Amino acid sequence: MPRNFDFIRSLNDDFFLTVRRAHLINLYELLVTSLSDRNYCRANRIVEILLQCPEVDVTHVWRAAIDVLMHLGNAEKTCIDFFNQMLLHTRCKEEVLLELISFQLHSGKPRDALEILDTYLTQQPYKDNPLIFGYTGMLAFALWEQTNVIINGSSVIKPIIDQENEKINEKPVIHDLELCIEQQARYYELSISSLRMALEMDKSNDMFLVIYTQLLLADGMVDEALDIVRSFCNQNPHIVIGHRLLFDILYKHRNEDTEWVQAGKTYHRIDPVSPPEAVLNPLINYYENVMENQTSTTDKRPLAEVHYNILELLFQRIENGDDEFEYVKDAIVNFTWLEFFDPQRELTNILLENRAWFRKFFWFPNNKTITCWQHMQYYRILAVFCGCKSQGMIISRANKLKYYILTGKGGEGLKGYLLDFRVKKLKELRENVENIFGYYLNEVVIPEPKSDQLDINSENEDGQSSDADYISLEDDQIDQLHISSENEDAQSDEEDEAEYISLEDDLLDYLYDEF
């Protein structure tokens, strides 16, 4: 329904209030209220009165009239006649035509709707409207799918879109197979040509793009579909549907190269809360396979890049409010290995470059995101890994967990923490590293972190501060791991630029009691 002031201004050019004018305005407002309350009987009487008034422009009433006719159970012929009258007496003929097509579809008459559109496609102003061509293509596509079902299935199958009007005792319809094949080709060509015309006129309509690519892929024209979708993504970089289509086509039909990986990363960056099975899981599986197939026994950079890319995906999920807690635990594991394979912190710094908020955020349980204290502790441990400073207990948990992830030892000191981790997966990661580089992490003697041990993120002896702690494997010490840390006095003497999370004394005591 149009806004009230539009209806008032449409009555006449005289804005002085008269009694008749006031009555018409009140009637229109009552019509809006009646439709909102679903009182269609009263709305029907109001529409009849308004349509008889010469001052009322039918443009502002025809939608309400159609709504009333459809809900009062009037005959289909009556509604069609009203639509035809509106096409003759209103200025918004294109909108009326689209409503007529929608009515035909709701009535289970897709073929009638397509025939109506065919008669208007070559007329003004309809031939310049991309929606008219797009809906023509969509109707032809629906009928093409019906003929596919008939041809590929039983010869007595009735079209799906007509089944809602099928009577209970109606005998099944026998379809002529040759006629169905002929109709299939005709509907396909009509749908392809109409959708192509619609996309040429409106290059941002993703609904038409989806159907158009389905038709191209059904005919095996993968390269043509990719060209269309790539062009759409270049012209509309912020429309998610285009990037999703590009990823789906590349992943299903052109997965022999890595272009689908880049398309998936772009899609996930634009829509980080998309269903995990749509893009996140395929990307994670790809990077895990790269990790398993690593053959270089000296270069750690490829494995660092793998963990970096996995972390980038997981952080996008966490930052955008995805409450799946597995992402936090996987981020802790991958961040530990990223620091292990990236001792110079090149990729680590890139990962944390625009995520300073994560190190400064005060993670606290609430009913919407973090539902228990243990989950909160994992968020804080991840924040400690990313470079924030915290109280000793959180640091101790983080150090012990990092020690266990890398060596498999010290798990008894974590109590229930390991129950949330996939221990088998951690073991596979360690074994993979051992097989690649030829040393055994489980046999390396590393002193287990003490409860009073300082944060590994402490500054080094040269006074250079770091945003996150790291465990480095020196080139000349193949058989030994080295965990860098300093004592508390050296850390307090030098300036530390990193932000830290401070806990009140009473809250800190409560946390100690909890753990």
Automatic annotation (TrEMBL):
<dbReference type="InterPro" id="IPR011990">
    <property type="entry name" value="TPR-like_helical_dom_sf"/>
</dbReference>
<dbReference type="InterPro" id="IPR052669">
    <property type="entry name" value="SL1/TIF-IB_Component"/>
</dbReference>
<dbReference type="GO" id="GO:0006360">
    <property type="term" value="P:transcription by RNA polymerase I"/>
</dbReference>
<protein>
    <submittedName>
        <fullName>9996_t:CDS:1</fullName>
    </submittedName>
</protein>
<dbReference type="InterPro" id="IPR039495">
    <property type="entry name" value="TAF1A"/>
</dbReference>
<dbReference type="Pfam" id="PF14929">
    <property type="entry name" value="TAF1_subA"/>
</dbReference>
<dbReference type="GO" id="GO:0000120">
    <property type="term" value="C:RNA polymerase I transcription regulator complex"/>
</dbReference>
